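Why do we care about 3D structure at all? Because function follows from shape, and shape follows, mostly, from sequence. That is the central idea of this module. The next example makes it concrete: a single protein chain, its amino acid sequence, and then its structure expressed as tokens.
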Amino acid sequence: MDSLRGKVAIVGAADTEVGVVPHLSATQLYVKGAKLALEDAGITKDEVDGLITCTSFVEPYMYHAEMIAEYMQIFPRYCLNVATGGGTTLAIMHHAASAIATGVCNTVLITMADNMLSGLSRDKAIEAMSTAGHAQFERPYGPPIPGFYAMLAQAHMHAYGTTSEQLAAVAVACRKHASMNPAAQMRQPITIDDVVNSKMIAHPLHLLDCSLVSDGGAAIVMTSAERAKSFKKKPVYMLGVGEGHSHEHLSQARSLTTSAAKEAGARAYAMAGLEPKDIDVAELYDCFTPVVIIELEDLGFCPKGEGGRFVEGGRIELGGELPINTHGGLMSHCHPGHPGSLFSITEAVRQLRGECGPRQVKDAEIAFVHAQGGIMSTHCSMILGKESN
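And the structure:
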């Protein structure tokens, strides 16, 4: 299980501006993020021999990675486009790590972006939200994406007594952290009452239980642990990674309260030789508040059914037992679609470098990042560390 442990490192990480960015197209956001990450790594594009991207909703190309290579005049020997919904980032990094460790390429640039807020029409946004289900067995009943996640929340409430106020605690923590992040899209602090009194979207999910819609991009540079020693900034090492995949359509899910995050997390812990108690900071996928509660349970941070109680009392806030989403997450920092979880990686890198200012987790040595795509369909967990072992 330790085949990739400590063998690959992140040597460059950067974000573009986020929120409403009407002056940049999706492609320009991809390229801007890439250039900033290369600058952070202290290398030029000519030193890149691997390029991986995700698909853009707004500007789709059949050969998207090749299009970005063409635009930037990069001529890689390894070029790949990956699309697994919100889990895309970590799946891409898993591919990159494997390619580097096996000698397929030496230095991989990963860039992801989209302009879902300024570039996607209202009609297209509604279409995307309403066509996620199975065409024959789910769509005829009309559930949009928030409706599917509302079903998960209802199931958790029914099984374990989880409350709307406990869901709201997730949103409050993310917004508290975003208030300390000048780059975040939403920075005004909110309260539990603000969340539960916000507009009902799909019972029991209120507006503030839902993630944002955003423009933005991010990028990272990965290379071997040995080569990473020569880069200008201290590397952040990949210690463990694991995936778990259970279904595409929610009607076929094995459970509404337990996800394949359980398998993904277990595989990442096994590779890293670590346990949940070893984690200093966690960046968890937070498209809707109940997702975080389910992830906390499935990833071993608390027993099944106790996620609602776990998030109470500031436990997931800075200074608490397990600070999560220290940049604000998808709830408050930004959510431009597929690229959303790459901001979790760039934040984890900054936390381990000690670059986060007022939102810095003291003495952060180990970071856990988790992303999921679909409706809790595809999961990937990653453990990053300041040291390679």
